[in-house]
């Protein structure tokens, strides 16, 4: 089996959400077997709201990103999570 890169968009609950703190919390919940590739980037959405975009490297097995998605969803301040891209590397 190989590895895949998963590009994930994380929406904060509001424009008042502390994005720096949210980034740090997200880094701490990345499950074993996955690793952050590059920085967590802020993407402007509208009216001051910014999404966080991150890329994870995970093993190419069934359910490879599910553990990370579930962990991110439990972080306080996260509204929702969307998989943007998933590709084999």
Automatic annotation (TrEMBL):
InterPro entries according to UniProt: eEF-1beta-like_sf, EF1B_bsu/dsu_GNE, Transl_elong_EF1B/ribsomal_bS6, Transl_elong_EF1B_B_arc
* Pfam families (alphabetical): EF1_GNE
Gene Ontology MF term list: translation elongation factor activity
Task: Give the Translation elongation factor EF1B beta/delta subunit guanine nucleotide exchange domain ranges.
Answer: 3-89
Q: Which domain of life is it from?
A: Archaea
- What UniProt keywords apply to this chain's record, in alphabetical order? Elongation factor, Protein biosynthesis
Family that this chain belongs to: Belongs to the EF-1-beta/EF-1-delta family.
Which purpose does this protein serve, as stated in its record? Promotes the exchange of GDP for GTP in EF-1-alpha/GDP, thus allowing the regeneration of EF-1-alpha/GTP that could then be used to form the ternary complex EF-1-alpha/GTP/AAtRNA.
Q: What is this protein called?
A: Elongation factor 1-beta
Origin organism is Methanosarcina lacustris Z-7289
């Amino acid at each position: 089996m190989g590895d895949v890169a998963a590009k994930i968009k994380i929406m904060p609950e509001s424009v008042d959400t502390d994005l720096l703190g949210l980034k740090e919390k997200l880094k701490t919940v990345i499950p074993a077997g996955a690793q952050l590739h590059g920085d967590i980037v802020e993407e402007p959405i509208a009216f001051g709201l910014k999404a966080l975009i991150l890329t994870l490297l995970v093993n190419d097995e069934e359910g490879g990103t599910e553990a990370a998605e579930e962990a991110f969803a439990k972080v306080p301040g996260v509204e929702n999570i969307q998989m943007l891209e998933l590709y084999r590397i």
